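[STRUCTURE TOKENS]
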Amino acid sequence: MKALVYGGPGEKSWKDVPDPRLAGPRDAIVRVDAVTICGTDLHILGGDVPEVRPGRILGHEAVGTVMSVGAGVGNLAEGDRVLASCISACGVCRFCREGRYGQCLGGGGWILGHTVDGVQAEYARIPFADLSTYRLPASVPDEAAVLLADILPTSYEVGVLNGGVTPGDTVVVVGAGPIGLAAIQTAKLFSPSRIVVVDKAQSRLEAAKLFGADLTLRPEDEPLEAVRAVTDGLGADVVIEAVGTPATFELCATLVRPGGRLANVGVHGSPATLHLEQLWIRDVTITTGLVDTRTTPKLLDMLVAGQFDTAQMVTHRFALGEIEQAYDVFSRPAETGALKVVLSRG
């Protein structure tokens, strides 16, 4: 089969590799019908995730068709159309039993495209398939469903829920890429009084307005003064960091009010300074996290009910074999206007 193979920082290639095979009783082999590219994949190519070794097939967000299952998989059958979650769960370790699937001790967690071969390929092996896939109703198209593999549950769990968004809050989202836009969508479920979005790219700020942002700002617009101006000088109740750079994290720490919450979602490859000399007295809560995908079934129900319009997130479409071109477009959002790209089997 063909797959996108990581060759080391800055290197990737769409090439022939052996077909995946069942390696354990809880595995499934899935034909990849739709796949997308994540900002985390760009971090891998930037050398920010050293656990990913050369030779690894990238990707952790896909919709596919089950081709075969191991003897231990009782809830899937050949021909089932499924969402392959970005998180795999053994289901029996301490963290899985607490619903913290991202911290799985039994061989799961974020493994696809990380410590095992991923889904940016024609076929993929899905470990722990009984707990790490979701059968999809026919009413949900591939393009909509694939956004539930990572960005929607990540934004919802690590951003909105960890941030404790409540009705009437002022929420600031720093970064209007796909994660930031999904954070806007899911924050609105809790009726905040306003959502402020900060980003460098005007095209992404325009997208943020379409997704429901009340105020959009560029870094040169003095975000601290602008946020204080709409909060009686206090600052934001909740700030969601959705970029993953030292500058954006440190900006978030200045925007949060005393007693507020800063939820870090971005993937960081470099140290950021935590200014405790300023924060120690302000009762600020800072959270970090890897998505657990425990909310995926609920988000899927909301998608079926029409509470999310994920289609507007997809700006570019490619055939699966055009994945190197898709990476180029996705990696230059300021020039291309790319939000989410989806690649489909021809």
In short: The longest strand covers residues 28-36. Residues 152-287 form a domain with the Rossmann fold fold (CATH 3.40.50.720). The chain is about 25% helix and 25% strand.
